[in-house]
Amino acid sequence: MHHTIHRTTILSLLTAIGLLSAFRFINNDDFIKQLLAKFQSYNQQRPLEKVYIHTDRSIYLTGETIWMKGYIFDGNTHGIDTISRVLYVDLVDPYARRIRLRSQLRATTSYSPGQLALPDSLAAGTYLLRAYTNYMRNFPEAYFFTKTLTILRTDGANTKPASAVLGKSNRLDVQFLPEGGQLVEGLEARVAFKAVNSSGHNQPVEGFVLNAKKDTVTGLFSTHLGMGFFTLTPEVGQTYTGFVKQADGSLEPYPLPAVQPQGVIMQVDNLSNKDHVRVYLRHNKTSADPAAMMTLLAQTRGRVIQAAKVPLSKKGSLVQLPKADFPEGIAQLTLFDETNKPACERLVFVTKNEQINIGLSTDKASYKNREKVELTISTTNPAGKPVAANLSLAALDARQAPEADSNSASIVSHLLLSSDLTGTIEQPGYYFNAMHKDRWQQLDLLLMTQGWRRFTWTEVLGDTIPPVKYHVERGLSLTGRVLRPNQKGIASKVKLTFVLSRRDSTRDFLAGDSDEFGNFGAYDLDFTDTTTVLIQGVKGKANRDLSISLDQLLTPTVTITRIPYNPLEFRYDELAEFIKRTKEYQEIERQIRRNGEVLLQSVTVKAKKYQEHDSRTIYGTPDASIKFDQMNTAGRMNILDVIQGRIAGVQVIGNGLSARVQIRGAANFSGPVEPLFVLDGMPMDLQAVLGVSVQDVDRIDVLKGPSAAIYGSRGSGGVISILTKRGAPDYDLTKDVPPGTLLAKLPGYAPVREFYAPRYDTKKPEHVRPDYRTTLFWAPLIQTNAEGKATVSFYTSDAKTNLRLRAEGVTTSGMPGMEQRLVQVERE
């Protein structure tokens, strides 16, 4: 009796007492108006983003590369979101709670191809691949994308580490969760439960429920992945305890939630009717106000679907919600009581089959070794009509890369399910696999037991919406604070200069001020690979009193909110072939690299040294220039003291803060025009320039009249260009770090490498080596055209094993799809 939804019981009960009723959408009620306005405002100020990562596989050896493609979505509409353009990817050791690898991927039209090279030093184990945007940090880490990966070693050190046991107790964790949220005296309710073991994985269970008198009330047993439910009618003054059988056969007690003397219960039937979600409401409250009303709100990803008023004068009511009004995905049903406080809540999944179909068609039924595979990819909408989509595709050796789980996560299950729930979801692909006829029943059960914490109603209905702390990044950022020594106080309104020095000797120069709280930020930057960053506070001698910190140098904390689910758990014997073949291939790759290095060492290249252009000087030869050295800077307080009397036509009037500079002939009808000051290519005012130490200056160039025209009207008074030693292209920024300066090496966007796949149509020397690659082909950016077609080709390897193809992707509107198929390789 516990396998089916008890719709018949509820319907017969409500019909018998004549309390069946339906309610329509209402928007002219004062509370509903207020609720809708605040809910809309909340979602406008705190929109959502979602991220998904498709990796070529789930099992790797150290020394291999994880090939990946990131997708960024608008979390509310699921449309392709092009706002955030930086995707952060971490490889997390969940047991040590440390980030082992980190990468920043560039997002172009929301797609982020990239890779992670696994160092040989990594320990074997289960890891989490975690991905998020900076803006997603405004929300709990539980909504970051996570994927479980298995990493093995070639040296055989693949035993499960002792630290891998997250829990010391063997006692099962069993939760009892009344549907809608509470148990109420005299009202029959469904109680869902979920059991997990000390490793965080599901555990099938059975047992029974006793009341305080030790009478058996009902039996219980799980029906799917440690989950199940039973019905219970709480009696007045009773308490209830569930007894669940443990792995050793013993029975352990688990208390059910306390029974409320008065309240409302919500029961939802989302299965028996294809057109409506039916919400049954019952209560045992009494009210002196015959007009008292409760309110039912249905919303999906911030979009309100229905708002209905339910009279408190009726002890039981039915609200029918048309499924046609809902988008596909998780809907949240919330009942507000007569005092407008949230009383009950339930999640349901509305299926609309809004997913693309991906076809993978090969030109032959089977292939020989090293034979070309011509693959045609087609994408159609649910109606079968062609639709353009962007896909990523992996072709794997099916034996060397066994599927961890045929019901593993995909872009479909993540976008529609996992990204809106907290906690571990085991086998999320089960609920989207048409082979499982019971998947909708089991998904409904999952939503009775799974967490939901996207927001709290107190936040929505409160007067203040939590501020957005982490901004949307349209490029890389440098943010931090300027403090006094020992962080005793903030340093506000400090002028800062930034120098970004790349490996190719090109440099960027930026300038700005810290705010009144000492915070600073340089945004929308674009640099690739490791870059040296120098930040200096420009405040003259006061530089020694400044301490600059950079947020990007802080190691983020790791909070494990989802326990890794890894059904492989080191099946070493089954992976022996994969380890053997991959180790051999890695040795061949290393030998080729060594041979190449020997060849390079024997070649001497003679060429004229290329003179690097100084990007700070957009002009040619200046009209005048003065080189700063120990002789002309000795005893001088600022740069004006150095140039005074040394450059013809440049006049310095006054001294200190009141000093003024004029280049002879620079005047208009209003009088003399001051020159434009440029510090390492950045326009600055005179006061900022006076704060630059004379010891830091390399030279000063002066442009007069026509020479200054390159700076436009700003240079009508001439130009004085100050070039610092640190700004020079050939200057080693690490040579000296004066007080008030921060020097750091920061990673930029990860360079995107092209996946190497040999083409055997033309003979090459390297083709003599054996080919037993695990990933034969990886294509992260396949775009089908308006006819929904695209073609790719690759070659089979030397292995006489079938290939597994997996394609995932989305349309621009965010309709996801995933397809897998096997390609047969002949075993002669």
From TrEMBL:
GO cellular component, one term: cell outer membrane
Protein name, as recorded: TonB-dependent receptor plug domain-containing protein
Organism encoding this protein: Spirosoma endbachense
Gene3D superfamilies per the UniProt record, alphabetical: 2.60.40.1930, TonB-dependent receptor, plug domain (2.170.130.10)
Membrane spanning stretches: none
Gene Ontology BP terms: siderophore transmembrane transport
Single GO MF descriptor: siderophore uptake transmembrane transporter activity
Membrane topology category: Multi-pass membrane protein
Compartments (UniProt record): Cell outer membrane
